[in-house]
Every structure is written in C-alpha cells, then in structure tokens.
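Researcher: Please translate sequence to structure tokens.
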Amino acid sequence: MQTKEKIDKLSKIADIVNKKLIVLLAIDGGVGAYSIKFIEQNNYFGYMLGIIFIVVSMGIAYNYNELNNLKRNIEEL
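Model: Translation complete:
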C-alpha cells in the first residue's frame, strides 16, 4: 500500500473508534448518574449499575488507548 492509502485507512478506523467512544461516554454518564440515584435510595440495583459503570469506564480507557495508538501510527507515516 502507498502511504496515502494507509493514512486513509487509519483515519477511517480512528473515526470509527471516535464514534464508539462518544456512545460509550454517553452510556457511562447515564449509568453513573442512575447508579448514584439508586445507591442513595439503598437499592441493590444501584450497585449493579455501579459495576456496569466500572466495566464501561474500562472500555472507554481501552478505546482511548486504541485511538492514541492510531494517532501514533498516522504520525509515523
């Protein structure tokens, strides 16, 4: 592949990761807010939402790492 084709491919992948990241951030914010609300009411559902919040937060961290790696690959080209 030529350099331009590689850059185009990497930028498309980065765009997909970025869109996925926006969705995960919205989900994480909503789940976090509801988990606090239910924990304040001493409801066990809040703790389950808290666990989901932690899992989605780890997914966000993974996607940031993936986006950073793609950025480095584009800069190397």
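Researcher: Any highlights?
Model: The CA atoms of residues 39 and 46 lie 5 Å apart.
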